[in-house]
Amino acid sequence: MEVNCEGCAGCCLDWRELLGDDDSVTRDAADEHEHEHRRHDPFAGSDGNDSSRDPLDDDPTFVALTRDKVRAFLEAGMADALTPRFWYARDDAEGVTIDSHTVAAVADRPAFFIGLRKPPKPVAPFERTAPAWLPTCVFLDPTTLQCRIHGDELFPAECGAYPEHNLALAQETECKRVESAFGGDRLLETDHDEPDGLLLGSQAIGAKLFCHPRPVDLEGIVERATAGELTCRDRAETIAVAAASSPGTLAISDHHYEQAKATILEDSGPDSESTADSWVGPAIRDWYERCREAGEAVPSPAVADAVERERGAPETPGWDTLE
Ligand code: SF4
């Protein structure tokens, strides 16, 4: 299959705020896209189905990682890049109530994905001349709209398989949504191989869908996940369970859990500038601070050189060298 990604990155950021912000995009289109989700989320149920499970968070392009990838990010000192996704249960029978929310569960264990965070960055996708602050994948270079870890061993399998996963599951692709909102040709052909790694149903448990063995430990975390206010300690609790999971089972290794949690708390948090080797955590905190301080102003995407590159983020090649 062939896609045209230059100047897009629609599957790496949350561009819903641009709908209706452009005269060429009608409010109808904005409404049509408001509740769609980019990646088929096997735990969310069918799109358009009233009884589907909605995520607690508001990220339409959440990238779910496998357990092995979660461990690889921890080993690279990049736990700050990660965050959990929980879902509302369809009904009381399949959920566990925490912080007044009934969250979807497997065998009474709250279920969750671990994916990549999206701090606000100044980006100008879809040939816009003016940048806008948009929730953007921690690994997207705002200047080139290319992935900083493409080709790296940390590159998520799900990003490599997109949009094939959606096509294989007969779901709309982000490419088509971008085309219908902003024009252009993004999805150049729809023929695709059968993708690996869909991990549907019970295969997903412990491999991509993680189940917390102690719901009581999620008190407070569920409320903060709903409010978009997760703390470093909250993320550490869920990431450690994911890292300690066993594919195909509900088993959690206490040893791996304790070890992962200690590593994350050591590498992450507001004081980690001096302890973590990775550029990721300091850059995320800097983006949030700059966005808060900027108010209505939006800086050039080139400010990413100071926020990311000078802290050690890998460069991206630009599009000229790829043609
Ligand atoms: S990891 Fe790379 S390809 Fe995947 S969402 Fe982030 S920037 Fe995009």
The radius of gyration computed from the alpha-carbon positions, rounded to a whole number of angstroms, is 19 Å
What count of structural domains? 1
Morphology call: globular
Question: What is the H-and-E element order?
Answer: EHHEEEEEEEEHHHEEHHHHH
Number of strands: 11
State the secondary-structure class.
Answer: alpha+beta
How would you sum up the major sheet?
5 strands, antiparallel
Percent of residues in β-strands: 5-15%
* Poorly predicted regions: none
Helix content: 25-40%
Helices, by number, come to 10
Bound small-molecule species: iron/sulfur cluster
Describe the structure.
- With 323 residues, the chain is an alpha+beta fold.
- It has one domain (2-322).
- 27% of the residues lie in helices and 13% in strands.
- Strands 2, 3, 4, 5 and 11 form a five-stranded antiparallel sheet that branches.
- Helix 7 packs antiparallel against helix 8.
- The protein starts with a strand and ends in a 16-residue tail after the last helix.
- Residues 12, 63, 116, 137, 139-140, 147, 149, 156, 159 line the site of iron/sulfur cluster.
How would the blueprint of this fold be written?
Elements lengths: L1 E2 L23 H8 L32 H9 L6 E4 L9 E4 L2 E6 L2 E8 L3 E4 L8 E4 L4 E2 L4 E2 L9 H5 L2 H5 L5 H9 L4 E3 L20 E2 L9 H7 L4 H12 L10 H14 L12 H15 L9 H4 L16
Helix pairs in contact: 7-8
The chain binds iron/sulfur cluster.
